[in-house]
């Protein structure tokens, strides 16, 4: 019996030793991660032992740039930090003579951190001085877990068929999105961009992400076409249609890893988002197959192009496009609309890239060429190189001049009005006017935060169009609508209480709109509102009665709280108190 006990103890010791040995040396190559705020460094391998955690990484930069990393760099798990101890091929704080990044634009470095205890499966890589963070680095060698709703997992993937004809149609495109895998503790920079023919916004529109990872975007469009959503260093391409709504569910880790030098081959052609609504099949493909819409989006292209001589540059760019064209034509898994859209953008980009250094060597023959991101630059180069004013270029130039004059002067001059009449496309005229009205609303909002602003609602607006017309200019902001009258004592008393509320919420993006009807004499109303900061409307009787009846305002004061995505969130008859309104407005603005 003792013999068997001894054997069991021996086997137990061997098992414990094997387990210890297994932990003592554990490594994972090209670890997955959730998202990253930098593209300057990527982790190639993590080796864990009892003595240290070794991180083999790749540092990217300009050739000749010094390779330096901060001593404040650490691996982090919750509140626990594992500091950087030693480094090879990179200088810590520049205290040793730093090596320089070679001509390839990248170099391998080795970092040694304090050992990570067993049981920790995920860490963040944090370089505090430069602000580099790689969130959710997996120590297990598997993809980060993300909850994907079952209706998305079981949905059939379908190829796109044909692109719609590129017809002018001004309107708003709406995007409701959900970032799967998002955690509020992450630093997430989300920027939305689209190709605007009138005024290119290089910085884009910053998108606010709610605690649950949801977001809402509205944008004015003159034509269906491309848009980009940048999430940290990754990018999601979309195709939007004016007047249509799109819902998108984004797999954050897969999108992030598809932008990684080390992981893009694995994740570049995996589905990174799911779309519902307008052009869903094309958008699903844009979120899956990974072909770029611009050669300049590829960092490797930029680096290789910079190495070409002037004589060989044209040949290099054309060869790059030819390779993409062959691959797309041979790729049986992509849909026809996707193939048309990508090839159009790549061809136009090829010509524009060459046009930046000389004359464009050809033209775009696609019937969908208005969908190109480089459309207006292409038209400009066509006029410059071939003396041809092509397609809508003359109208676009006039519209830009009128719109940019309005941006400077905040009004249409008589010359601008005359120039507007010469624009041949009614939809372009309409688009300019709508954009100008939006700018006026923004200016009025800025002024309303300092004093009062009188706004007018067209007397012909009626019924269900009344409230949308009032709040349409304030999408993206929470709105408090106050129903009142000059003769209403409780109304004035509640306004006095709301003054303190405004001060407390001054840092929030909230619009205060005051509505009254014809029972408030116009002269008295104009006198009374001078002391009430906000946007003021005096409605005609039919408009006032419709809003009160439709939204249950049976007595005044009455209130509507509109969330930043334009939806009615709360409504009250009688003053509910500043505490209630504060909670409502905070919720409406998030």
Write structural notes for this entry.
The chain has 590 residues and is an alpha+beta fold. Helix content is 35%, strand content 24%. Strands 1-3-4-9-7-6-10-11-2 form a nine-stranded antiparallel beta sheet. A six-stranded mixed beta sheet has the order 20-23-22-21-24-25, with helices on both faces. Strand 22 (510-516), helix 15 (522-528) and strand 23 (534-538) form a beta-alpha-beta unit. The longest helix is centred in the N-terminal third of the chain and has 23 residues, at 2-24. The mean pLDDT is 90.
What labels describe this entry?
590 residues, alpha+beta, 9-stranded antiparallel β-sheet, 6-stranded mixed β-sheet, 17 helices, 25 strands, 35% helix
Give a short overview.
This protein is of the alpha+beta class and 590 residues long. It has 17 helices and 25 strands. The protein has a 9-stranded antiparallel β-sheet. A 6-stranded mixed β-sheet has the order 20-23-22-21-24-25, sandwiched between helices.
Could you estimate the helical fraction of the residues in percent? Answer: 25-40%
Whole-Å distance between the termini? 70 Å
Count of separate DSSP helical elements: 17
Strand count, sense and barrel status of the largest sheet are: 9 strands, antiparallel
Radius of gyration: 30 Å
The coarse overall form would be globular
Number of strands: 25
Strand proportion, as a percent range, falls in: 15-25%
Overall pLDDT metric: 90
Helix/strand/pairing class, anyone? Answer: alpha+beta
Report the uncertain regions: none
Strand order of the main beta sheet, please? 1-3-4-9-7-6-10-11-2
């Amino acid at each position: 019996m003792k013999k068997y006990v001894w054997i069991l103890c021996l086997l137990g010791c061997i098992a414990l030793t094997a387990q210890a040995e297994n932990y003592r040396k554990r490594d994972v190559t090209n670890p997955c991660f959730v998202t990253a705020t930098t593209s300057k460094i990527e982790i190639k391998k993590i080796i864990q032992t009892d003595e240290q955690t070794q991180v083999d990484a790749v540092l990217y930069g300009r050739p000749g740039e010094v390779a330096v990393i901060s001593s404040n760099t650490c691996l982090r798990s919750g509140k626990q930090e594992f500091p950087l101890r030693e480094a090879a091929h990179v200088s810590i704080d520049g205290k040793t003579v730093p090596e320089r990044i070679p001509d390839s634009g990248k170099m391998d470095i080795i970092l040694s951190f304090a050992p990570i205890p067993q049981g920790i499966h995920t860490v963040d890589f944090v370089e505090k001085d430069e602000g580099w963070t790689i969130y959710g680095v997996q120590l297990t060698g598997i993809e980060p877990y993300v909850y994907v709703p079952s209706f998305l997992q079981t949905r059939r993937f379908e190829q796109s068929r044909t692109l719609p004809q590129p017809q002018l149609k001004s309107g708003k495109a709406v995007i409701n999105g959900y970032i799967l895998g998002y955690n509020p503790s992450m630093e997430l920079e989300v920027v939305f961009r689209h190709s605007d023919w009138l005024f290119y916004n290089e910085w884009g529109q910053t998108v606010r992400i709610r605690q649950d990872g949801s977001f809402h975007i509205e944008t004015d469009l003159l034509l269906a076409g491309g848009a980009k959503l940048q999430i940290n260093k990754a990018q999601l391409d979309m195709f939007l249609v004016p007047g249509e709504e799109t819902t998108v569910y984004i797999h954050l880790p897969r999108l992030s890893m598809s932008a990684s030098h080390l992981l893009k081959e694995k994740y570049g052609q995996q589905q990174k988002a799911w779309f519902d609504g307008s052009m869903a099949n094309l958008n699903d493909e844009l979120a899956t197959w990974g072909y770029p819409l611009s050669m300049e989006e590829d960092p490797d292209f930029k680096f290789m192009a910079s190495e070409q001589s002037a004589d060989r540059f044209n040949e290099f760019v054309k060869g790059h496009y030819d390779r993409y064209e062959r691959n797309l034509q041979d790729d049986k898994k992509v849909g026809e609309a996707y193939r048309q859209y990508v090839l159009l953008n790549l061809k136009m980009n090829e010509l524009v890239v060459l046009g930046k250094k000389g004359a464009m060597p050809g033209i775009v023959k696609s019937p969908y060429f208005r969908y190109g991101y480089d459309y207006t630059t292409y038209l400009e180069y066509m006029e410059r190189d071939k003396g041809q004013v092509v397609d809508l270029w003359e109208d676009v130039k006039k519209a830009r001049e009128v719109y940019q004059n309005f941006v400077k002067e905040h009004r249409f001059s008589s010359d601008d009005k005359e120039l507007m009449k010469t624009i041949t496309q009614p939809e372009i005229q309409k688009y300019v006017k709508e954009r100008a009205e939006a700018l006026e609303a923004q200016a009025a909002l800025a002024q309303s935060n300092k004093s009062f602003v009188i706004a007018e609602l067209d007397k012909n607006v009626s019924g269900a169009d009344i409230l949308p017309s009032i709040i349409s200019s304030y999408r993206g902001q929470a709105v408090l609508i106050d129903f009142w009258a000059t003769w209403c004592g409780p109304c004035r008393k509640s306004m006095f209480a709301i003054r303190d509320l405004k001060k407390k919420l001054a840092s929030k993006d909230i619009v205060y709109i005051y509505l009254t009807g014809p029972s408030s004499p116009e002269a008295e109303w104009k006198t009374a509102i001078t002391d009430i900061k906000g946007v003021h409307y005096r409605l005609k009787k039919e408009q006032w009665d419709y809003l009160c009846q439709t939204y249950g305002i049976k007595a005044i004061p009455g209130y509507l709280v509109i969330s930043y995505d334009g939806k009615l969130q709360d409504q009250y008859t009688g003053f509910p108190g500043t505490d209630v309104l504060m909670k409502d407005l905070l919720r409406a603005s998030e």
